[in-house]
């Protein structure tokens, strides 16, 4: 009987056995995570509250419960990530009716800051990805748009990085690599067809 699989569902693991990470210790954040085991180093597997997409979720991040909202075909969430030298704030907004042939309009939904950004497309197997970098006095970061390549639906992403050090030493290429790696892990789920069946 020694072959029993350990319980990894965060909703079923006892409180004292949960990993000591910000994501797992926060009850609301934990409700979106599929397993207490990391899908890759530093990340858990996340499924959206309306079951439309999956992504890697940083173990040092939490989802703000007050800023969370969802409806049929819509979901908005904010993620806060803390570090000793910087904080990262991520806003993600899924909208089911967005289409790939309206890219400029979709980019404009990211706000006025998007007007000054030259979005570039990056190769990816699971979705069409576009991103651009911005830089302000107190923070810098990225705006991104993730389009479902097989259906309608897209995700608008704002990724703000606030440095604590005055010499901006946290602004380096590794942050962009980290952001792009995270972005490439977003995968859309197949939509249920049951509402169209007789």
What gross morphology would you assign?
globular
Q: Indicate the proportion of strand residues.
A: 25-35%
SSE pattern: HHEEEEEEHEEEEHE
Q: What integer value in Å does the Rg equal? A: 18 Å
Question: How confident is the prediction overall: mean pLDDT?
Answer: 88
Q: What class would the helix/strand composition place it in? A: mainly beta
Described by strand count, sense and barrel closure, the largest sheet is: 8 strands, antiparallel
Contiguous low-pLDDT stretches (5 residues minimum) are 193-198
Give the helix proportion (percent range). Answer: 10-25%
- Termini separation comes to 46 Å
Tally of extended strands? 11
What count of helical segments does DSSP give? 4
Structural write-up:
With 198 residues, the chain is mainly beta. It has four helices and eleven strands. It has helices at 22-25, 27-30, 103-108, 173-184, and strands spanning 43-47, 53-58, 61-63, 69-71, 74-82, 86-95, 120-122, 128-135, 140-147, 154-163, 187-188. The strands form two sheets. Strands 3, 4, 5, 6, 7, 8, 9 and 10 form an eight-stranded antiparallel sheet that branches. The protein has a three-stranded antiparallel sheet with strand order 1-2-11. The chain is globular and about 50 Å long. 25% of the residues are buried.
